Amino acid sequence: MIEQVVRDFLDDPKKNSLGGKFAAEKAWGTPLVGFSSGTDPLYLKLKEDIGEFYWTPIEVFSKTLPHSNATADELTVVSWILPQTEATKSDNRKQNKYVSERWARSRVIGEQVNDSLRGHVVTRLREVGIEAMAPVMSPLFEERRSEKFGIASTWSERHVAFISGLGTFGLSDGLITAKGIAMRCGSVVARIQLPPTTRPYEDHHEYCLFYTKKICARCMARCPARAITNDGHDKDRCFAYMHPMMDDYAKTQFGLVAYGCGFCQVNVPCESKIPTPDDLQQVSLRPEPR
User: What is the pTM of this model?
Assistant: First the structure.
């Protein structure tokens, strides 16, 4: 039922649109949906790794819905992957300094679509008597700083997707899924017991060629900020490149309050799939010609 609710929402061109001069185009492609238990031990491990401020499913559920008497074992976390469209990926492959307009729109207008989807899933569940909430839309959600990882927040959509069987992390910190790393994700916590999606991997880096085969690192070559190294992703350096330069560019060129470049998510072997060593030969280090 929930999977169909997500798909039906995104099939509606009035709800899933890039807006502006791209209003006829979808913001997102066909989604992936996964589930995890509110008692999955990985949620506690995340809290231990990221910081005491990080929420487990029962913590965010209880804090946001204080009237509820739900217990952790009654909760299911619903997670989804929203793949970038081919047109958006193609545009951004041509870039190596400034973000393309479609990609900037996916970051702003596309995330508004994602927020609407979060609200829609919550509403549909509540209509049939199921308590539900979207953690990143909670008035208590906030960005924090992790002593171990730097820039962080009280809830991570990517980590939820990992726990829900939808992908593993790459060198750039992005999540490599069956639809690739060029995507965004969302989640809802609901008081319903559903079978968790099987995680088809054992390691949190299992889909990344750099970590598993010691090859690739194309995302490193794509990063104009030099924020990706053999040691991983430097969030602070990445942030410093985007702000204010990328903010100013998106505002002056596209009239959007947007940030992010997404270069590490396109023109890489994991752009649209779980990569194999053979995929490395099909990717150029140079951006596509304009």
Answer: 0.95
